[in-house]
Amino acid sequence: MAVLQSLYVLLSLFIFVLIGVSLYYDHKLKIPPAPTLPWVRRKILKALKKHLTKDNVFIVELGSGWGGLSTSIARNFSKAGVRGFELSPFPYWFSKLREGKRVRFTRADIFDQDLSEYDAVVYYLSPVVAERLSAKFQAELKPGTIIVSNAFQLPGFEPVEVLETRIGVRIKIYVYRT
User: Fold this and answer.
1) From the CB of residue 157, how many other CB atoms can be counted at a distance below 10 Å?
2) 67 phi and psi, to 5 degrees?
3) pTM of the model
4) What is the DSSP string of the chain?
5) Can you tell me the distance from the alpha carbon of 145 to that of 142, in angstroms, rounded to the nearest whole number?
6) How far apart (Å, rounded) are the C-alpha atoms in residues 46 and 35?
7) What is the dihedral of CA 71, 76, 81, 85, to 10 degrees?
8) pLDDT digits 0-9 by tens, 117-171
9) Do strands 161-164 and 146-150 pair parallel, antiparallel, or not at all (unpaired)?
10) CA torsion sign, 152 to 58 to 70 to 39?
11) pLDDT at 36
12) Residues 6+ apart with CB under 8 A from 115
C-alpha cells in the first residue's frame, strides 16, 4: 500500500510540474502549442505548392509545436528540407520523435534564429508575436520568400493570396511574398 501511495504522489507531482511548465510557456510565448487542423494543413500545403517555384527548397515552421505540419510539409515536398523551431519543451520533445531525413526540429527562440536561408516561412502564432515577426522578416528574409500565416494577418505586409477553410470553423490562411 505504501508503494502505491508513493507512486500516486510521484504521478501527481509529475502532472503538477507538467501543467506548471506548460502554463509558463503558454504565457511566455503568448500562445499555447495547438496542432494545425487537418483541413487547415491541406490549405497551407496547397498554398506552398502554388507559390513555391522550385522543388529544392528550404522551409521553416516557426513555433512548430508538436511537429505535425512540418512533417506533412516534408512528406509533400520530396526535395525540400524542413526545419521546425519550438521553444516549449513538451511539444518540442514530442516533435523530436517525428524527425526524419528531411525534417529537423530545434528547441530555440525564433527571434534568435537567422531566417535568411529559407525559401518559405510558415507559422501559426498570435498577432502579438506576428507584429515582432514583421520587422524580423523585413530585415532578414531574401526577396521572393513565401510567408504563410495561419489565421492571423502579418502587419506591414500585403497578402498575395488569402485562402479560407470551408470545414468547421472558418480560418483564413494568408500568403505573402517578400
Assistant:
1) 18
2) 90, 0
3) 0.84
4) -HHHHHHHHHHHHHHHHHHHHHHHHHHHHTS---PPPHHHHHHHHHHHHHH---SS-EEEEET-TTSHHHHHHHHH-TT-EEEEEE-SHHHHHHHHTT--SSEEEEE--GGGS--TT-SEEEE---HHHHHHHHHHHHHHPPTT-EEEEESS--TT---SEEEE--SSS--EEEEEE-
5) 6
6) 18
7) -30
8) 999 999 999 888 899 999 999 999 999 999 999 999 999 999 999 999 988 778 9
9) unpaired
10) positive
11) 84
12) 60, 121, 136, 137, 140, 141
Q: Say how many residues make up the chain.
A: 178
Cell numbers for 127? 498577432
Q: Which of 55, 31, 22, 61 is nearest to 129 (CA)?
A: 31
Contact 147, 169 (CB under 8 A): no
Query: Which CATH class for the 38-177 domain?
Result: alpha beta
Non-local CB neighbours of 85 within 8 Å, separated by 6+ positions: 60, 61, 62, 63, 64, 105, 106, 107, 108, 109, 110, 113
C-alpha cell at 56: 529544392
HSE (CB half, 13 Å, CA atoms) of 62? 28
Return d(Cα 76, Cα 112) in angstroms, integer: 28
The three cell numbers of residue 47 are 498554398
